[in-house]
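This part of the workshop introduces the protein records we will be handling. An example says more than a description, so a record of this kind follows:
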Amino acid sequence: MATGSSDAPLAGRRILIGRPEPEGERLARELQAAGARTYCLPLLERRALPDTPERRTLIQSLDLYQHVIAVSPGAAREFLRYAEDWWPQWPVGLNWYGVGQGTADVLRAAGLRVRIPATGYSSEHLLALASLARPAGDKVLIAKGRGGRELLGETLRERGARVDNMVLYERVCPDYDSETLREALQTFDPDAIVVLSGETLNNLIALGKNNDDNLMRRNLLVPVARVADTAREQGFERVHVPEQLTAEGLIHCLGRLD
């Protein structure tokens, strides 16, 4: 559903949001408050994976780790949901990390003290933190989905850390019918599309290429230069990387579009 208001920084803008829920609706409310009309079309769906003996062993040993990293808001939520059955009180001495402000906010809402870079919001920025610079001998637990980038784990292992992945969910491309896609892309006719991961970009292309002749000419907001390069290689002509992936950063970027 498209909604919005007037007399605000994004008044008159039509923004298609491809974020999964609940992040998509949360961002929509922020953009609407800035005057935009929004349409949420989640381009990524998370499906929880069944519990396993391996995962139970990891969570039971949480107090033996020095660092816990959540790679996304979804990973943070799934980890907290799973861990609460095992740890009514968190072990002391853990260093908590979130890749990006949104991930950190989820962890902080659970009462955790979270470390994030002063600037930047990628795995590369997180790896630049002093507390992760020399983790030789430390145990690191990474909460994540199946697949995805392995940069965090690979780099920390190279630095001497003992790294375990807690895989909590899988990401799948939603199955939309042609009518839904035409409504989102052609009828709504967005001025910009927000896709904040490489996988989301791939799903946009797979779902939209046969349902929107203007897809490659639309403004596209992506999270980092690496994803921007992929988008341009796929034929997108107007690709933008916000300075920050906060709502304020996205609004600032959207407000400067032609």
